[in-house]
Design goal:
With 238 residues, this protein is mostly beta strands. It has three helices and 22 strands. The protein has a six-stranded antiparallel beta sheet, with helices on one face. Strands 13-12-22-21-18-19 form a six-stranded antiparallel beta sheet, with no helix packed on it. β7 and β8 form a beta hairpin. The N and C termini lie far apart (52 Å).
Length: 238
């Protein structure tokens, strides 16, 4: 029976069998067969269907895309030994002895991987692929933004991680105080378009330049961010 092995930073997170007649769902929500607890993963991100003797991977219009061997796909017939990338996690596709021997060679039509050819495709490629085909440019060296504390802290905080967590929890990257501030109050995530501040929880919502935000906002140089007891100023690069 085919198996998907989920890994994060080369550490195994579990193995998941692909059963005939069933769909293996992948996503952030708990109702998925493969649950990946990462805010960058869509609730229902992708799925694998058994079609005849083949195994079809389909991206479910996820926000950050599904990749096979480094390239973004819409749908793809999986071959033994291939690696699926979903954000920072990987899923290795492997067939067992009998399944490996009888894996069919897909027809010309089935063998074609559907590649996104849009602005979204180019953004995804530049984020995940070192070398890309055709006229797509290689990924440029990214500048790293930082926060300068105005009150509630001192110095600067470099936004070197893909996601920074802000809240009252001691596990937060930036710990804040306040009765109405959530344990997980907000996040700052780095995307191809820039840095986004997102509200997560708590009665008090984060503010950008004095305005409360309900969901996410793209940060600009010199924006002033307030979360609970902390006031910070954002700079896109040093």
């Amino acid at each position: 029976m085919p198996v998907l092995t989920l890994k994060f930073k080369d550490i195994s997170q579990g193995e998941f069998q692909i059963e005939k007649g069933k769909t293996l769902s992948i996503g952030r929500l708990a109702d998925n067969d493969v649950c990946i607890e990462n805010l960058a993963v869509s609730g229902h991100h992708a799925k694998v269907d058994v079609v005849g003797e083949g195994y079809l991977l389909t991206d479910l219009q996820s926000k950050n895309g599904t990749f096979v061997n480094g390239y973004p796909v819409v749908s793809h017939w999986l071959v033994h030994g291939e690696t699926i990338q979903i954000c920072k996690h990987t899923l290795s596709f492997e067939l067992t002895g009998n399944e490996l021997k009888k894996q069919p060679t897909p027809s010309c039509q089935m063998d074609q991987t559907m590649i996104l050819d849009t602005k979204v495709y180019r953004n995804l490629v530049s984020e995940h692929v070192k070398e890309v085909p055709g006229d797509l440019p290689q990924k440029k060296q990214e500048t790293v933004g930082f926060l300068s504390f105005l009150t509630g802290g001192s110095g600067e905080f470099e936004l070197s991680k893909k996601m920074i967590r802000i809240g009252k929890s001691e596990t937060s990257d930036i710990v804040v105080t306040g009765l109405t501030v959530g344990q997980a109050a907000a996040t700052i995530s780095r995307r191809p378009q820039g840095y986004y501040l997102s509200y997560v929880g708590g009665i008090s919502k984060p503010k950008v330049n004095g305005e409360s935000i309900k969901e996410s906002v793209l940060l600009k140089d010199m924006d002033v961010i307030v979360v609970g007891s902390v006031k910070m100023q954002f700079f896109g690069s040093k």
